[in-house]
C-alpha cells in the first residue's frame, strides 16, 4: 500500500524558513512524479510544487516561486520542500501527494486524481 509520511512542520516567525520532508513507500518512487499540496483552514487544498522522477524538473505555484524549493532523493525515497521567506499566508497543513498514476501533470489545477495523501504536517507562520 502507498504510504506517505510528512515531517518538519512547526511554528515559525514571519520571514523564517522550514524544511518539510516526506518519506514514501509502497510504490516505485523513482518512477513517480511527486507533489506538495497545502490546505489552509476553511479553504480548498492548493497545489504548491511538482517534481519529476528522473531529471528533477520542477514546477511551482505562483505563491511558491522564488521562495520554495522542492527536491527528492530517489535512493532514500524522500521528497522535501524547503520554504523560505515564510509569511502568514503560508500557514496551512502541507501534504505530500501522489497521483493515481506515476504522472499526474506538471502544473496541477485539479486534485481529484490524487488519491494518495500523507497525514500532513502543520506549518504556522506567526509572530
Description:
The protein is an all-beta fold. It is built from no helices and 11 strands. Strands 2, 4, 5, 6, 9, 10 and 11 form a 7-stranded mixed sheet that branches. Strand 7 and strand 8 form a beta hairpin.
Topology:
Elements (H helix, E strand, L loop, with lengths): L2 E5 L2 E3 L5 E8 L8 E6 L6 E6 L6 E3 L7 E6 L4 E6 L8 E7 L17 E2 L3 E5 L2
Parallel strand pairs: 2-11
Antiparallel strand pairs: 1-3, 3-8, 4-5, 4-9, 5-6, 7-8, 9-10, 9-11
As residue ranges, the low-confidence spans are: none
Give the rounded overall mean pLDDT: 96
Count of DSSP strands: 11
Helix % is under 10%
Q: Which structural class should the secondary elements be placed in?
A: mainly beta
Strand content: 35-45%
Terminal-residue CA separation: 40 Å
Order of helices and strands: EEEEEEEEEEE
Count of separate DSSP helical elements? 0
Main sheet overview: 7 strands, mixed
Describe the global form. Answer: globular
Question: Cα-atom Rg, whole angstroms?
Answer: 13 Å
Quick gist of this model?
This protein is mainly β. It is 0% helix and 45% strand.
Features:
127 residues, mainly beta, 4-stranded antiparallel beta sheet, 11 strands
Amino acid at each position: 500500500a502507498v504510504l506517505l509520511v510528512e515531517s518538519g512542520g512547526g511554528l515559525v516567525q514571519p520571514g523564517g524558513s522550514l524544511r518539510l520532508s516526506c518519506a514514501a513507500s509502497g510504490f516505485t518512487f523513482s518512477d513517480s512524479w511527486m507533489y506538495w499540496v497545502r490546505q489552509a483552514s476553511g479553504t480548498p487544498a492548493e497545489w504548491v510544487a511538482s517534481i519529476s522522477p528522473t531529471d528533477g524538473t520542477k514546477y511551482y505555484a505562483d505563491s511558491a516561486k522564488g521562495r520554495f524549493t522542492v527536491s527528492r532523493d530517489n535512493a532514500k525515497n524522500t521528497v522535501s520542500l524547503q520554504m523560505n521567506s515564510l509569511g502568514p499566508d503560508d500557514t496551512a497543513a502541507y501534504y505530500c501527494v501522489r497521483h493515481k498514476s506515476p504522472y499526474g501533470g506538471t502544473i496541477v489545477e485539479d486534485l481529484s486524481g490524487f488519491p494518495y495523501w500523507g497525514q500532513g504536517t502543520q506549518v504556522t507562520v506567526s509572530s
